[in-house]
Amino acid sequence: MINQLVSNIKKTGAPIVVGLDPMLSYIPEQVQKKAFAEFGETLEGAAEAIWQFNKEIVDKTYDLIPAVKPQIAMYEQFGIPGLTAFKKTVDYCKEKGLVVIGDIKRGDIGSTSAAYATGHIGKVQVGGNTFAPFDEDFVTVNPYLGSDGVKPFIDVCKKEQKGLFILVKTSNPSSGEFQDQLIDGRPLYELVGEKVNEWGQECMGCSYSYVGAVVGATYPEMGKVLRKIMPKAYILVPGYGAQGGQGKDLVHFFNEDGLGAIVNSSRGIIAAYKQEKYASFGAEAFGDASRAAVEDMIADIRGALENR
Ligand SMILES: O=c1ccn([C@@H]2O[C@H](COP(=O)(O)O)[C@@H](O)[C@H]2O)c(=O)[nH]1
C-alpha cells in the first residue's frame, strides 16, 4: 500500500491528505435539513448528513489529492449509524482511487491489538466466509504499550500489504508532557522514532517502508531530527492549517527526493466555506470552497519545497 501512496503522490504532485473529520457544526444547513427530513433528528439522520457532506467534498477534490484520512472519533460519536457512514466513506474513497488512512489511534495488549488490526486492515474468518470489515489502507497506531502492542499490526500489514502510521511526536500543545521526557538524556519521541525505523526495516515497499510515523507540523525542529532517525518511514504530518502549521515549517519533514511526508488538513479543508478567505463560495458551494482550499494548500507546500 505504501507503493500506491507514493504513486498517487507522484501522480498528483500533491503530498497532502484531506482529513474527513465531519462535525455536525461544519455541515451546511441544507445538507442537514435534507438528511433530517428523511431520517429525522436521529443518529441515522446525523450519519446521513455526514455521509452526504463527505461525498460532496470527495467528489470535488479527489482528482487533486492522493489520500484521505477519516478520523473515526467523528463517526463513533453517532454510534452504529456513524460507523456505517465511516465504512461508506472508506469504500467510496477507495472507489475513487484514493488511499484511505483510518485515523483510529489503536494499540493495546497483543491479543487485543490483533483484533483491532484484523478489523481495520485485515480479514476475519466467520465459519467458511472471510470478511475485510473496515478495510482501510493504513491505520494510525498508538505505540505506548510497547512492541507487543504494535507487532500484531505489523503482522497484518505484511500479510495484507497494508500500512501503519505510528504516533511518534503528536501535534497537540501538551504532547511534550510525556513525549519530550528525557531518558538517558534523549527525548522519548526520538526513542520511539528509532523503534519505528527498526520495525519498518521488516516491511519495505519499493522505496519506503509500510511502517510510517505521525509527527506534528507544530514541531518542525523535532520533525527535522526525526526525518534523519527514520529515513525510510513516510511521515504523516497533522497540524497544518487549523492548528497553525504552514508550508514553510514543513520542508524538513521531506527527503531530498521531495517524498517522505504527507501533510494532513481536516477543518482547514472540509470547513473552508466558513473561513473569511473562502466565504464568497457560500454554504451551498461548500465543496467548491474545499477544492479551492486544497489548491491553496498544494501551492503553499509545493512553493515551500521549491524554495528550500
Ligand atoms: O498528532 C496528531 C495526530 C493526529 N491528529 C489528527 O489529525 C486531524 C487534525 O485535524 P485539523 O482539523 O487539521 O486540526 C484530527 O483528526 C486529529 O485527531 C492530530 O491533529 N495530531
Q: Quote the beta fraction.
A: 15-25%
Q: What name does the CATH topology carry? A: TIM Barrel
CATH class type: Alpha Beta
The major β-sheet equals: 8 strands, parallel, barrel
Q: What fraction, in percent, of the residue positions are helical?
A: 40-55%
Anisotropy-based shape: globular
Strand order of the largest sheet: 1-2-3-6-7-10-11-12
Could you walk me through the main structural features you see in this protein, from its secondary elements to its overall organization?
The structure is a single chain. This protein is α/β, with parallel strands linked by helices. The protein has a single domain (2-306), classed as Aldolase class I (TIM Barrel). The chain has helices at residues 2-12, 29-39, 43-61, 72-76, 79-95, 110-121, 147-160, 176-179, 188-201, 220-229, 267-270, 286-306; strands spanning 16-20, 67-70, 99-106, 124-126, 129-131, 138-141, 163-169, 182-183, 186-187, 211-215, 235-237, 261-265. A hairpin with a 2-residue loop joins strand 8 (182-183) and strand 9 (186-187). The longest helix is centred in the C-terminal third of the chain and has 21 residues, at 286-306. The chain is globular, with a radius of gyration of 19 Å. Bound molecules: the ligand O=c1ccn([C@@H]2O[C@H](COP(=O)(O)O)[C@@H](O)[C@H]2O)c(=O)[nH]1. The site of the ligand O=c1ccn([C@@H]2O[C@H](COP(=O)(O)O)[C@@H](O)[C@H]2O)c(=O)[nH]1 has 19 residues, from strand 12 and helix 11. InterPro entries: Aldolase_TIM, OMPdecase_type-2, OMPdeCOase_dom, RibuloseP-bd_barrel. It catalyses: orotidine 5'-phosphate + H(+) = UMP + CO2. The active site is at 105 (proton donor).
